[in-house]
Amino acid sequence: MSGIYRDVALLRGDEDQDQSPADLGRVPITVIEPEVHARGGIVVLHESREFTGSLLEFMRALATEGWIVVAPDLFHRGETEPDHEVFGDELFADFDASFDWLTRRGVFPDCIGALGFDHAGTAAFLVATNRPIGAAVSVAAPGIAEPLTDDAEALVRAAPNLQAPWLGLYGADDPDTPPDDVEKLRDATARASVASLLVSYPRLGHRADNPGTEDDDSTYDARTRIFDWFDSNLR
């Protein structure tokens, strides 16, 4: 099957239960498949309760490169608080369900990556410190020196535990990720046993991956780095 569609991924331990997609045993996912034979999969973690046009465009671009893109609904548990964020056991359970969905379709575990933007970039980083996946990318991920929530670990503390090659993209003028914190994260990830690359774009206030915002040269460079990182590490 190619194109974009919705499906459900089973939470681990619930495979034998007869549950509806609305039950806690299943995670609603949005899938975009390539027209050609898939060479791997990318789990896109996103903090929005709905997809923006730019995020869908990015996901389609990944699929065009041959990746099966799976985006789990991290808010499927029905939390009503608008500022509720999914970290800790809930995050890892939803990622594992998406990961298993991909492996059941023949994707090798080391050909599965994680990608996140903003707070979901923090989530992608933490997944890479807890799961032996193929690669991870975080864009403008905050919570570097202090954890975002009680369920999230500060990135500088988690960094030495990275289990997957990690790419981090930051804007040097982003108030949510001060330059001193970004440098601390660069040092911390360098102590991990896997490859890491942290890029900080000068004169950029926030995300370098959004076209038409602040600096189109940074946008082109950031997108190229994301695609190249997955190309190089998901093999």
Automatic annotation (TrEMBL):
GO MF annotations, alphabetized: hydrolase activity
Q: Name one Pfam family in it.
A: DLH
Q: Where is the Dienelactone hydrolase domain positioned along the sequence?
A: 34-232
Q: Matching Gene3D superfamilies, A to Z?
A: alpha/beta hydrolase
User: What InterPro entries does UniProt report for this protein, alphabetically?
Assistant: AB_hydrolase_fold, Dienelactn_hydro, Dienelactone_hydrolase-like
Q: What protein name does the entry list?
A: Carboxymethylenebutenolidase
